[in-house]
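A favour, since you know our structure tokens better than I do. Just paste the record in under my message, thanks.
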Amino acid sequence: MTTTHDSSDSFSLLADKAMEIINSANDFLWSYIVITMLVACAIYFTIRIRGAQFSMLREMMHLLRHSTSSTHKADGSKTISSFHAFAVSLSSRVGTGNLAGVASAIFIGGPGAVFWMWIMAILGSATAFVEATLAQLYKQRGQDAFYGGPAYYMQHGLHQRWMGILFAVLITLTFGIANQLVQSNTLCDALSDAFSINRVFVGIALAVATLAIIFGGIQRISRFSAIVVPIMASGYILLSVFIVLANINVIPEIIRLIISSAFGLEQAAGGMVGAAIVQGVKRGLFSNEAGEGSAPNAAAIADISHPVKQGLLQALGVFTDTLIICTCTAFIILIAGDYNGNYDGILLTAQSMETTIGPAGRYFLTAAIFLFAYSTIISNYFYGETNILFITNKKWVVTFFRLATGAIVLASAFMTLQTAWSLVDICMGFMTICNIIAITLLSNKVFNLLKDYKTQRRNNTDPVFNKKTLPEDEALDIECWD
């Protein structure tokens, strides 16, 4: 018995040491490298596209209204519309990061973290535009739909397959494993807390439901996202607006608190400025994914007439995710006022919801969590599959990954949230660095595409791109756009 006890203690100490190393690596990676690269690139892209994420907002809304219909090919197969691609990427963006991630940012970094999430959304939307446009430019034809993403523009745009493989591995680890753990762990927490259900049973049910969707391929995934995302987002926004209006008298004070905390203008918040910035950028990226290299995988699947169209829609997705939905969560938590207590993550959001609208709030949030987390799990799987196919097109590998996804979702029922967050942070940090290097090197192509798009719009035509307009040596690297 003593030997068993000693072995257990040794394993526990080893696990604690490993987590300590991972957390130290995360602190250095995010505090110095990732934040600097993200902010620098976001500012650079904003300047080079001349603030198109603001000036072309009306164009974004026009594209969204006219992008809902799918078309059929000559052989009778359906293509995936721009809206469906937008919905797949938004279902990944709008996940538990909007609920648990915002709560954790406020819990660790204080109210000021919300301000830095806003800044990252405003600037980061330019980065989202660049990476999504590149994904469209270098997309490939598949059996059921187009596919592409950072791994593909690293190989065909930069001619660096090794870099594409590295990214494919990193994004599969991030979204296929670590991110899935966060989403399903949060869902298990919420359901077990709200209904006193055993976490294991929740994990089993979630794993089965996940497998039912992902074995239907991208067509089923895109249809699922197109239905669920508008419902879950609009429902959550409407409830949040109701809560804000019911507490409208305290909103000016909350905004003042967010801004003053962001810059340490209050003595109590002075020592938390660094934490606010780091948490705001980190959780902002986890939520809206701008620059991370995940959303371009969804952007590539759309069948559209010009790459810039999907780039603009992805920029709009960042605004929707952070400036609207994350802000809703932040206001609910700050209205409740109990963000310095013992609750973190989704439990803090649930407690705040219950404080603001009563016991019904917890059950509404549970329903929102289910939709948010489940839709994100599905999109995360798609990102993993797309990049596995970049490495190998063997069907048994994809089947194995689908089964592994179900097992990972189930395994999350036995993990702690902090462990899951630590794994996500370090994987996400490295894949973000890899993607930022690639999109910076290829960004001139996007700037030229944007000029072409604006020229055609000024001539009152629906922009259409053809690779024949490019120099012959550049067109050879592009499979589509004939």
